[in-house]
Amino acid sequence: MKSKPFMKLKSWMAKPFAQPGFTLTELAVVLVIVTLLISGMLLPLSAQQDIRARNDTQARLAEVRDALIGFAIANDRLPCPASPASNGIESPVGGGPCTNPYDGLVPAVTLGLSPQDASGYLIDGWGGNANNRLRYAVTTSNTNAFTTLNGMRTTTMASLTPNLKVCNSGGNVTGAGTPGASCSAGMSLADGAIAIIYSLGKNSSTGGSGTDETHNPNPLAGVAADPAFVNAPSGETFDDQMLWLSPNTLYNRMVAAGRLP
Q: Exposure of 63 by Cβ count < 10 A (0-12 exposed, 13-18 middle, 19+ buried)?
């Protein structure tokens, strides 16, 4: 006869183990939490991409400005902007009166800069279409002295009067679309810049909807090019990025290199 403890052990071993699991309600809650977590990760990723694109663009603008100074020291003139049909080469080759002084593109091939798109134009950090090409404007003052071989030296620094302006908003541009375009009194960030380099930013495919963005030469906005540009505070209606070349900066570097006076 078996002992009672053994019988109890046998009885316990005969019972099946309980199989733990999730109910449909619990699974639904888990799926909702996972979805929220993934959505929360996507937003910061998009923001990080925007920050990287802006930083890359800013670095390229600075590189262009340095390349323009280097070109001027080596060639006694600034390069003309590239035209939409010149494949990244200054237009015309050799300088002089430029074909697109206010609405041209960075002559990346002439300056030896990258990254370029398939047509030879320098692109900004957003890169996706032809409107993401970096733009370059150059002064036409003193009968194109700045883009003409030895034009600056012949004219002399004291007589040079670069005419590019940077206004703090589109509403403060006077004479828009004319050769005499300028900024309202006290509303200028730069009065007499030699060159301006800029990107149309993330919304380049639409060109922006505010008066600040639509003033900058933009093929989508149909605004006539002129020597005044806008660099408004960054926001929903303005995301252009811009740098300009001061005459004092250029003269200083050219004097130091023995190219002026």
A: middle
Average pLDDT across each block of 10 residues of the chain; the chain has 261 residues. List them in order: 50 52 71 70 75 95 98 98 97 97 97 96 91 96 97 97 96 92 95 96 78 80 87 89 97 96 92
Number of domains within the chain: 1
Q: Over the stretch 138-158, which tens digit does the pLDDT of each residue have?
A: 999 999 999 999 999 999 999
Q: Is residue 29 assigned to a domain?
A: no
- 193 SS3 class: strand
Domain presence at residue 20? no
Q: Where are the beta strands (DSSP E) in 1-61?
A: none
Q: Residue 11: its pLDDT value, please?
A: 52
Which residues are paired to 90 by β-bridges? 82
Locate tokens 């006694």: which residue? 76
Angstrom CA distances, 207 to 6, 34, 97, 128, 141, stand at 86, 37, 28, 14, 29
Pick from 71, 200, 60: nearest CA to 138:
71
CA atoms within 13 A on the CB side of 221: 21
Residue 8 counted as domain residue: no
DSSP strand pairing (188-193 vs 164-167): antiparallel
Q: Phi and psi of 112, rounded to 5°?
A: 70, 40
Residue pLDDT, tens place only, 154-173: 999 999 999 999 999 999 99
Which whole-number Å values give the CA distances from 154 to 33, 95, 143, 159, in the listed order? 72, 16, 12, 10
